[in-house]
Amino acid sequence: MPDFVDEAVLQLKAGDGGHGCASVHREKFKPLGGPDGGNGGRGGDVVLEVDPQVATLLEYQRRPHRKARNGTPGQGGHRSGANGEDLVLGVPDGTVVTGPDGELIADLVGVGTRLIVAQGGVGGLGNAALASPRRKAPGFALKGEEGESIEVKLEIKTIADVGLVGFPSAGKSSLIAALSAARPKIADYPFTTLIPNLGVVEAGATQYVVADVPGLIPGASEGKGLGLSFLRHVERCSTLVHVLDCATYEQGRDPVSDLESIEAELRAYGERTEIDLTDRPRIVVLNKVDVPDGRELAEFVTPMLQERGLKVIAVSAATREGLRELSFAMAEQVAAARAAAPTPEPTRVVLRPREIGEIPFEVVPLGDNTFRVRGDKTARWVRQTDFSNDEAVGYLADRLNRLGIEEALAKAGATEGAEVYIGTEEDSVVFDWDPSVDAEATPIGPRGTDSRLG
């Protein structure tokens, strides 16, 4: 398996909240000690954080299932449970996070940028916190909530100022090695480079990062070769450099046709992803002029390329001819792009607050005196309830009545004995509704697949 992996799909699970504790203080000569059950601890969050020491997603491809720690239950003596430890997953700079439907969740750029991708469950309240003048010694506690579960796709888009594009074996890796301290694999066969190589180049007072994009051939934007896998790495480059092979003996190829083929792939990729690459400054490098035929061909095509308004530089990675001119030409483009760019934002924490609806619940008639109550708040209350405890069920009924569900059911046409589902189709609890009963509603039993409701 290769060491560099730039895509991974993760199944993430935040920690569950700890259950609250139902306890009564017991001490000699103090028969009315009162409730002293502590609250459960919060479940740990799952956090993605840009880590400069992480350059690949290989570890996440090997182990895609990750889970944060659960909160611990509360205890007697007003002792709250411990919060679950957050699970912090390091990702490379430039990682794009998308959801299962392809929607963008976050673009993580900048060392230290953090994203809470799955929030831990809230701990349940202990009976000490539930005590009130009406219910002075609750014999129950609330259950902790489950942590969020989410599937996300991670995708690296290399952070580089200059992207080298061209056919396989055009000499991109050789240029990276000649211009910087990077030492990519170099060989005389196509598709030697299987990962984007990065090199840091200094030209005068400007320091910038150069990346080569491997495997571009005609049809790359449609999945041929390796181009579709690595074209995304040019998206963040402010300058594109066409590396054209002036010493190729492949029939039907020449620098001009190679340039047109790669430009066609860049346009096709832009149309496919709605990311315009045509506005990036271009520099054309005619490589391998140390070969006699190569120099002659470079001199022949240079005027043709210059007529298109392109800056053309003839180089040889082997003899280092033209490399100084190339490095300063790239530095000039990079400096101009940086000057025109907006002021970079400081390292930030990305938050995904939960959506808060204006309506706490809604009653949906299902026919035959059957109704469904939908709402995040009501569903959460159901998940917190221990249905094996009659007092806890009564407390839930009181909360629902205070929210106005009984009145809403009556307006919706519910009559005595109506079946009332609370929750979604996959996760519901059903009650027989008796409008004359306040805190003694008894559930028929949990329905669905969520074991927490049992």
From TrEMBL:
Q: Which domain of life is it from?
A: Bacteria
Any one of the GO CC terms: cytoplasm
- UniProt binding sites for GTP: 166-173, 191-195, 212-215, 287-290, 316-318
As recorded in UniProt, coiled-coil segments are none
**Main location as per UniProt:** cytoplasm
Residue ranges of every copy of the Obg domain listed in the record:
2-159
Which top EC class is named for this enzyme in its record?
hydrolase
Record localization: Cytoplasm
Quaternary structure, per UniProt, is: Monomer.
The protein in question is named GTPase Obg
Give the originating organism. Answer: Nocardiopsis mwathae
The gene coding this protein: obg
